[in-house]
Every structure is written in C-alpha cells, then in structure tokens.
Amino acid sequence: MRRSISGALLSGLAAAALTGCGDDSPNSAIDSPPLCSVGDSGAGNGVILMAQSVPTAAWVPCIRTAIPLGWQFNYLEATDVVARFFLNSDRDGNNAVEVRLTPSCDTAGATPIASDREGMVRLERVTRMSPTYVGTRYYLFDGGCLTIDFRLAGDTPGEALALASQVVGVVSRTDLQAQVRQESGGRLNLDPAGGDG
C-alpha cells in the first residue's frame, strides 16, 4: 500500500509538532516509526517531518531495517530546533537509545574514529561504563549533526551499540525533496521557504 504525502499531512504534522516546542512529553509525539523505506514508496512520513524540523540537514536519520527482538520503537518528536526518536529495550529500559537530529552539536570531549558512513565525520564519547553504560556517538555532515545517545542498563552494551549501526540509517535530503514533489504531483516542496531548494 502506497503512502502519499499531502499538503494537509505536511502542514498538519509540522504544526502539531512545532507547537510542542520544548515539550518532552510523549503526549505530543508521533508513535509511528520513521522508516527509511515504506515498500517502494520512499521514506515514511516521520522522516519527512524530521527533515522539515531541521531544514539545514543534508541527511535525515531513519529506521532502515526490522528492529531486533527485545527492542521496540517508542516515539518520535520534532520541534523547530530538533527531531528525535527513541528505542526501548527489554534489557536496557525505556528510551535506552535516543537518535537526534540537530543543526549542530557540541562534541567537546569526543574522540574521532573511522566513520562507517560516507561523507560523515564520526566521533564517540563514553561518559560512564558501569553499572549503566552511558555514551554518545556523533555523525557530523553538511548542515546537521546526527547524535545517538546510549543509556544502557543491561549486561551487554555491545549489542545495543551494534544495534545503532544496524538499524539507524539515513536518507538524503535530495531524495526526500524528490519524493515530496513526486507524491504531491509537483505541488509541494519539502522546504517551502526555500523555493525549489
């Protein structure tokens, strides 16, 4: 079944999310996962909303594969300054992984490591190892920062770290722009203020 993006959806989702600025409550959040691909019809609507939330970002995070057993998508939240989604774990607790998109980020104290994503700089910072693993992974790119925060209470933090590499993908803004134009018959742009941008 093909999901279409309509003007009402784009403006309605954006208005609902943007009025919740600063509200961390799941009550103002979206409970459908931001899928990188919905069949053959491009990215899910949550990814479009995240892209609109951070209009400078060349890449937008998404869920690219089935989430492994023991993990589940919790919710997505988008405001006019940040877009993020959370994953729960039966071992590591609720919101064990937070995936966040912002225009920029503070990477002080993080260590550069070889990137697993072409065109992105990767850094890692571990804040605590025990009893709960707390750490952050950053991906820096044109116009944005993808941050993955880990708060892992289970005995196998390595599994959750691998999960982020396996499950969290990205979609290019260029592809999302093309998708919105195609699905709206050329009537809508992903970034209306930017004209054709």
Question: What is the CA-CA span between the terminal residues?
Answer: 29 Å
Question: In this structure, how is the largest beta sheet organized?
Answer: 7 strands, antiparallel
Radius of gyration: 17 Å
Which residues form runs of ≥5 with pLDDT under 50?
Answer: 1-27
**What is the typical, i.e. mean, pLDDT?**
83
Number of helices: 4
Secondary-structure-based class equals alpha+beta
Number of strands: 9
Large-scale geometry: globular
- Proportion of beta-strand residues: 25-35%
Order of helices and strands: HHEEEEEEEEHEH
Question: How many distinct folded domains?
Answer: 1
Lateral arrangement of strands in the main beta sheet:
2-3-4-8-7-6-5
Walkthrough of the structure:
- The protein is globular.
- It has a seven-stranded antiparallel sheet with strand order 2-3-4-8-7-6-5. A two-stranded antiparallel ribbon has the order 1-9.
- The chain has four helices and nine strands, in the order ααββββββββαβα.
- The longest helix is centred in the N-terminal third of the chain and has 12 residues, at 7-18.
- The chain is of the alpha+beta class.
- Strand 6 and strand 7 form a beta hairpin.
- Helices cover 22% and strands 32% of the residues.
- The protein has one domain (7-190).
